[in-house]
Amino acid sequence: APLLSTHHLGQSIHFHESLPSTNEAAFRLAQDGAEHGEVVITEQQTAGRGRRGRTWVSPSGLNLYFSAILRPELPPQRAPELTLVAAVALAEALRETDADALIKWPNDVQIGGRKVAGILTELSAEPERVHFVVLGIGVNLNAGPEDFPPEVATTATSLSQALGRRVNRALFTTALWGRLEEWLDLHHEVGFDPVRQRWKELSATLRQEVLVRTDRSELRGVAEDIDVSGALLVRTAGGSLERVLAGDVEQLRP
Ligand code: BTN
Description:
Structural class: alpha+beta
Strand content: 25-35%
Radius of gyration: 18 Å
Bound molecules: biotin
CATH superfamily of the largest domain: Bira Bifunctional Protein, Domain 2
Number of strands: 12
Helix content: 25-40%
Number of helices: 6
Order of helices and strands: EHEEHEEEEHHHHEEEEE
Strand order of the largest sheet: 1-2-3-7-6-5-4
Number of domains: 2
CATH architecture of the largest domain: 2-Layer Sandwich
CATH topology of the largest domain: BirA Bifunctional Protein, domain 2
Distance between the termini: 41 Å
């Protein structure tokens, strides 16, 4: 069996054949006192959640769906950094298999411009203190094009589609958890800067012409940088630099 190199992450596992959503299950466990590093993992989700109210297609037996409970020593306003920590770990774990994975801001992981993994972070906090964070990750490992509904099939891919071979889920999962714990530890000890530097190296978004849709508006320009809190900085045609904290990015010219 593959060796899990972590100290905390995934050392306690709650496995299910089927769940509505691992994020939902992990949130409840955390409310009941589950510890830092406990993981909920399932073969399939019947109501997998994506960002911005979307669903995450979660067929049985093929892919990876898990949520980690984290109890970070962070002020609530810095919790979003953890999503970028996870994106970096994910991109690195995928690249370790030889796939050319890159991060689309803020935290979609892509291969060849198609989405292979997603991250959904949910937070329970008071103004001054984080109770816990649920870090939910879905990775399309062995799904074929036929496993996605038609409207998703054109924008999604899986690691096995990219590599042209089946992927061992247990091996990939332990490799990912190892990376994730390393980056979480570094983030805890050193702060966000090394994460931000690595994120920039792995970014598919920076230097690209983008269209950003937020809840309120649309913004067009060149993605120049991410700032110290992970917000995207977009240079508009008028020359101003706009800061985007949350939204969807469409790349206009690849
Ligand atoms: C996104 O929209 O990109 C985020 C997708 C996150 C999906 C994962 S699968 C495991 C965990 N449980 C959920 O319900 N969602 C996340």
